[in-house]
Design a protein that fits this description.
The structure is a single chain. With 172 residues, the chain is mainly alpha-helical. The chain is built from four helices and three strands. Helix 1 runs parallel beside helix 3, helix 2 runs antiparallel to helix 3 and helix 3 packs antiparallel against helix 4.
Amino acid sequence: MTRRRILVGLLLALLVAVADQASKIAILAAMRPPGVEGEPFIGLAVIPVLPFLDFSLSWNSGVSFGMGNTHGSWNTLFFTVLALAIAGFLLRWMATSKGRWLLAAQGLVLGGAVGNVIDRLHYGAVVDFLYVHIGAFDWWPNFNLADSAICVGAALIVLDSLFADRLSHKNS
């Protein structure tokens, strides 16, 4: 039974990584200026999608929210090794996890990490393109589906740690 649960977490990770890469391939094709080859490139103008959502291409050689985005030669190696270490930790943790919500959360984080590692290895930076803005709150950094999966997965892990054990004093 445990193997089947782990398989569900791994399949969710695969689904996240594939959806992330498919979305990035589509946005790179849509935002590539005519005649421009190779990556990274400066994308076409912002593409409005909804009143609060635009597609706006950026290349992130750092981590979350652009921290460490110095485009230094060490960034790709350092952040790839870090993400792979986290992925290894998640795989070991998945092998001992019992709750299906926790396994789903771990699968989301793992899939997001893999999606961003693929970018780092292929482009030398992560493709970010989702830009959320509401009124004067237009300072949020670009992100992608992998980042979203990591954030949702991390939030679920926190919720699981607080409320999953029915006998926990945290539930009273």
